[in-house]
Amino acid sequence: MAGKTLIKNIKNVRLHSSTIDNKEMLHFKKFVDQWWDEFGELKPLHAMNKIRLPWIRESLVTCNKMEDPSLPLKGYTILDVGCGGGILSEPLAKVGANVTGLDANVDLINSAKVHANLHKVNVNYVASSVEDHVQDNFEKYDAVIASEVIEHVTNKQEFLKACVQCLKPKGSIFLTTINKTWQANLATISLAENVINAIPKGTHQYEKFATPHELQRILEEYNCRTEVVHGTMYNFLTNTWHWWFNPSITYAMRAVKLDK
Amino acid sequence: MTSLKHICKQAFIKPNNKHFFLKRNIASTTLNENYSNNYDIIIAGGGIVGCSLACTLGKNNKLSNKRILLIESSKNTPFTLPEKYSNRVVSLNPGTKKLLTDIDAWRHIESARFGIVKRLQVTDALSDASICFGEETSSENVSYIIENNLLIYAVKKELERLKNVEVLYEEKIKEYHLPDAAESHVNLHLENGGQYSCDLLIGCDGLNSRVREAMGVQYLNWNYNNVGIVATLKFSEEINNCIAWQRFLPTGPLALLPLTSSMSSLVWATTKEHAQQLLGMSNEQFVDALNEALWKVYQRSNIIDRTLKAFDTLLRASNIPADLHRRYPPKIDSIDGRARFPLGFGHATNYIGKGVALVGDAAHRIHPLAGQGVNLGFGDISCLNKVLSDAIYAGSSLGNVSFLRDYESERQKYNVGMMAVVEGMYRLYRTDFTPIVLLRSLGLQATDVFYPIKKMMVNQASL
């Protein structure tokens, strides 16, 4: 989710945090009021739930192990890093998961709390960076998700290290992001931001994009085996996401933390 | 709380009322402090489709922690199976039977009564062309003929066992407030002053749907200048009654649907004037008119007869004869319970909106000539049930448009196709213009011998 790793103002800035970019924070602060408008500026993120939630659910749980069919993720603890207004955290909680939503932006976390209260969804929202969060939450989660976040993170190495540290052994880390290719640059910045305005201007910087191999290499360093890399595709005309064979524009990946 | 007062009043003033128990249930839940008038799903309209939808959703284990409310304006009249057959029947295809079996309602029908169609024979009064689907000796059935009131009783019997579905009888909805971009709930005001809200409102309120009106969607519709006449028919002797007969007369199609070995149900679509005449007749006169309609040899064009004969010879020469044993419809002896109903066409351009969906006749209405109307409604039910499961499984709200749109596009694709075929048939058989009659007869004859196409048609109509 765009905007997750942002800080609101000097009071809240984790001065030692190397993963958070102040400019990003200012950009995403603009969306505090619009976060939950299904057809607003962030509609691609809402639409993405339709593929990423079933993906996460099916990766974590198989039908025959399910205790309660109406709450398939019951008993799973999940950390949603860079949760923003909670577009992914709330549905995860609704399917039974015990979700912690993490975002450095206090404004966003506050608006996420208000929304969750209003809709009677139980999500534990925390305004913090993932490096701080791991201090008290080492190896606590069954799954860590950073969806549409890593393309806004400056220091990917530190960021992924902290994410993996939050994960229990055998737990899964889920990432969705933008590839560092000319096709991605053309599609997500030149076209989506500047021509068809499907994404607000200034959301992405090409330098911060990462290829699946880069992320895979970092994850390997922290004892994670990449299980899946799969391309995704956004159709801005119908506002729908699809799985696509080609990961050259946007992709989703899942890695498993190995036992020591 | 007005609704609480109202419900209690109803319950205590009319303790002899048959639906006393249901009312009491709701009243006692009202007293529970957790109770609120906020439901996950509210279904407006408790007809065949509304009740079946409530039952299907109520039995879906992915929706087991959702609260569902069905609001019906009529009384909940108790049902005991009368000896006399009702003249209002529906033809259910195998897909619909499967859905009813899945929700356990079929066993109540099975233990009561229903007719089986193993073969459907369609003929044209203006030529010798005919087409048939299915075989009398086959183990597969083409469709099942069930009385409307028995069907709804069977579904209600299962519905009453569900804890997560509540039913309000004799309540009319006065106003619908559908959510705009910022809101997430649908609000309903009842005529008695009660207020309810829900995440998803489903309109099963029939062809004059008020939910559809509140959605403000475009509704393409027209009335046929035709009416349908229904009656229960008795034969002079017992026969192996498993063939549904349909004859296209110049005034409209006539169909006999098997009920028992000596009884069938009649559905006869004809012009308004002719219907007026038919309904004014004595029973004996009506039987005569009916037998004439079934057997009368209309004046035919020589060209059509000759061409068809030549075509038949050609088919025989190619070793693909059409029909070796031609069957003839039974002779009608007496009738019972005539009634009429209007016929029309209608289709809503949108089935869904934020927090709202239309199901069954509220979304589409077709000519009964193919017996598909209620089956389309049941198709809607199983599709919506699947889509809502997906939405729940993705942690989405039930009123989420991106999921509801899946329901809309899947059902419109199917329904519009079926409606176009039925409408096309209706128009094709409305005329007695010789070239058209010739073409349709050749087409029918050719389709009859072309097995793959026939198989495809049966499969499409069985979904």
Automatic annotation (TrEMBL), chain A:
Chain residues that bind S-adenosyl-L-methionine? R52, G82, D103, S147
Q: What is its EC number?
A: 2.1.1.64, 2.1.1.-, 2.1.1.114
Pfam families recorded: Methyltransf_23
Tell me, in one coarse class, where this protein mainly resides.
Answer: mitochondrion
Topology class, membrane: Peripheral membrane protein
Q: Which residues bind Mg(2+)?
A: E148, E151, H152
Looking at the UniProt record for this protein, which Gene Ontology cellular component terms does it annotate, in alphabetical order?
Answer: extrinsic component of mitochondrial inner membrane
**Catalytic activity as recorded in UniProt:** a 3,4-dihydroxy-5-(all-trans-polyprenyl)benzoate + S-adenosyl-L-methionine = a 4-hydroxy-3-methoxy-5-(all-trans-polyprenyl)benzoate + S-adenosyl-L-homocysteine + H(+); a 3-demethylubiquinol + S-adenosyl-L-methionine = a ubiquinol + S-adenosyl-L-homocysteine + H(+); a 3-demethylubiquinone + S-adenosyl-L-methionine = a ubiquinone + S-adenosyl-L-homocysteine
Write down the superkingdom of origin.
Eukaryota
Keyword Cell membrane attached: no
Q: Which GO terms describe its molecular function?
A: 3-demethylubiquinol 3-O-methyltransferase activity; metal ion binding; polyprenyldihydroxybenzoate methyltransferase activity
Q: Which UniProt keywords apply?
A: Magnesium, Membrane, Metal-binding, Methyltransferase, Mitochondrion, Mitochondrion inner membrane, S-adenosyl-L-methionine, Transferase, Ubiquinone biosynthesis
Q: Per its Swiss-Prot or TrEMBL entry, what cofactor is needed? A: Mg(2+)
Oligomeric state and interaction partners are given as:
Component of a multi-subunit COQ enzyme complex.
Q: What does this protein do?
A: O-methyltransferase required for two non-consecutive steps during ubiquinone biosynthesis. Catalyzes the 2 O-methylation of 3,4-dihydroxy-5-(all-trans-polyprenyl)benzoic acid into 4-hydroxy-3-methoxy-5-(all-trans-polyprenyl)benzoic acid. Also catalyzes the last step of ubiquinone biosynthesis by mediating methylation of 3-demethylubiquinone into ubiquinone. Also able to mediate the methylation of 3-demethylubiquinol into ubiquinol.
Q: What is this protein called?
A: Ubiquinone biosynthesis O-methyltransferase, mitochondrial
> To which species is this protein native?
Psylliodes chrysocephalus
Taxonomic lineage is: Eukaryota, Metazoa, Ecdysozoa, Arthropoda, Hexapoda
TrEMBL record, chain B:
What's the superkingdom here? Eukaryota
Name the needed cofactors: FAD
Q: PROSITE patterns under this entry?
A: UBIH
Q: Which family does it belong to?
A: Belongs to the UbiH/COQ6 family.
Q: Which GO terms describe its cellular component?
A: extrinsic component of mitochondrial inner membrane
Q: Which lineage is the organism of this entry classified under, starting from the top rank?
A: Eukaryota, Metazoa, Ecdysozoa, Arthropoda, Hexapoda
Give the membrane topology, semicolon-separated if more than one.
Answer: Peripheral membrane protein
Q: Where in the cell is it found?
A: Mitochondrion inner membrane
Task: Give the protein name, as stated in the record.
Answer: Ubiquinone biosynthesis monooxygenase COQ6, mitochondrial
Q: Name one GO molecular function term.
A: FAD binding
The protein's job, in short, is: FAD-dependent monooxygenase required for two non-consecutive steps during ubiquinone biosynthesis. Required for the C5-ring hydroxylation during ubiquinone biosynthesis by catalyzing the hydroxylation of 4-hydroxy-3-(all-trans-polyprenyl)benzoic acid to 3,4-dihydroxy-5-(all-trans-polyprenyl)benzoic acid. Also acts downstream of coq4, for the C1-hydroxylation during ubiquinone biosynthesis by catalyzing the hydroxylation of 2-methoxy-6-(all-trans-polyprenyl)phenol to 2-methoxy-6-(all-trans-polyprenyl)benzene-1,4-diol.
Its subunit composition reads: Component of a multi-subunit COQ enzyme complex.
